[in-house]
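Hi team,

Filling in the usual template for the complex we talked about on Friday. All components are listed, including any nucleic acid strands or ligand strings, so the model treats them as one assembly.

SUBMITTER: L.P.
PURPOSE: interface mapping
COMPONENTS: two
RESIDUES: 536
SEQUENCES:
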Amino acid sequence: MKILCLQLARLGDILLSAPALHALKRSNPSMQLDILVRPRFEGAAQIFSDWLNVKTLGTENILGPLLNDDDVQGSLKEFSSVVGSLRDENYDLVLNLTFSPLSSYLTKLIGVESTRGYTRFSDGSFALKDFISGYFYSQVGIGRPNRLHLSDIFASMAGVDLTDADWNLIKKSEDPEGVVVHVGASQQTKALTVDNLVMIISALHERGIKKITLVGSSDEAPIANQIVNRVDKKVENLCGRTTIQELIKVIASTELVIGADSAPMHFATLTGVPCLNLSFPTVNFFETGPRSTGSRILFAESPDQVMSHIVANEASRMLEGKTPAICIAESFGPTEHFYSPRWKRLDNEWSIIKSAYFRVPFDGQLSPLEISGINNLKELNELIVNQYLSLEGGQNNLAHDFIQQAEALFGVVAKTVPSLQVIVRWLEASRTTVGPGATHAIVQFYKNIHVDLAVILDELVPPEEKTHGNEKLPAD
Amino acid sequence: MAKELEFRLKRALELLEKAGQDFKTKKSSFEDSLHLEALKELVKEQVINENSMPSTGEAR
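RESULT (copied from the run log):
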């Protein structure tokens, strides 16, 4: 058995893919499991080289002729050579965990019959061939209501169940000490301000936490230098001074990691070190938050609104083994979903997702506007199903126009009732599962999608409630 | 991202777009056109990557 995993995203994605890949290898220790990563993140993948073969996409070689000599053919030749060498491996499965257009082409070009993740149909059009790829395409991402962790999504793609053994991938120190503070984040919008970091570190000192270590990339070193100059007591500054291996050792020997959404949090999760994660609307903590047992998540609308005394208080409580004071989510272990009873944002949308995708009985509370919107979608959907039925029965020159216009109205309804965008995105993704083929087969596929949609909509608003949504809405 | 690299990546995309038109005229193979599309996406993702901050501990 030979499997190739494409993970061409960033460092954090490689770390979040590791448990699923470990479970895959655990299920069949004799398999050859390769991962293709960008050269920039090879070091992160090499952490797992005991059980994972690391390959790199030679971006520099591929793009060199094009960027240096305007040589399109040269770059194409290099790219074809890379694809050819992957094809020659004769993999049994290509597991694409990247979710990018490039990876979809690469998956197709490697030419393996069995693939999971984004790929291309035989005519080159974008293909979502499996359930979880469709789910990712339509519901995962910042500002979207998904509450499944990326590591669980990757595990579903790989077809494995994660156990604790798949998470404890980096050895933890038996005698951990102090607190590690990550001064940056993968994006500026996720990072804390220098003022805030200074106040948090000072507050930690005031609470008697003696050993505080700053970590971060070389680009974040100036931030760390400013902090060191402004805090009264001693802080160890390792920002920009550690390799990945050294950073892992630092994290594995600490009691707590504090920081925004970034690689140190993921390292901590794989080490079993708890994290205090400072989260903002630019991140979806459900998807990428730290899952080591005892981790907690604090939320603020923006980095400059983080209250240093709240962070220091929560950190102290974590170190003293006390219950949370104000966190919005906590982790009871990497194989458990976040416990977040106080988090209400996009609750209804998440209930719609659970109902539509996982056929869990709908447990949300719909407003009159939402009921009305769903009933509008039902009527449009019924019209579309009838058009497909007439197409199945023979010629109907108007059907195509009817369907197009009715589908455009789906978008109008979702614009008026934003929570129903979940449904419209479900429909868009479902249509992307249909590849080229004979007209009658495509008509049948599309009709079946809309028949499924009717079931989903009936689950949200049972047919007997239909009249409620047609009542006149209040003026306010 | 350095201005020069930004310029070169932009130029690379223009060259690939033009090559795409030439492919259509010459009726190149379907597989060649897929390679070209993939290369375009690689350049686009390179622009995004160059503009993102380095990750902690990563080798650049």
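MY TAKE: The CA atoms of residues 280 and 448 of chain A lie 40 Å apart. Chain A touches chain B through 52 residues (CB under 8 Å).

Thanks, L.
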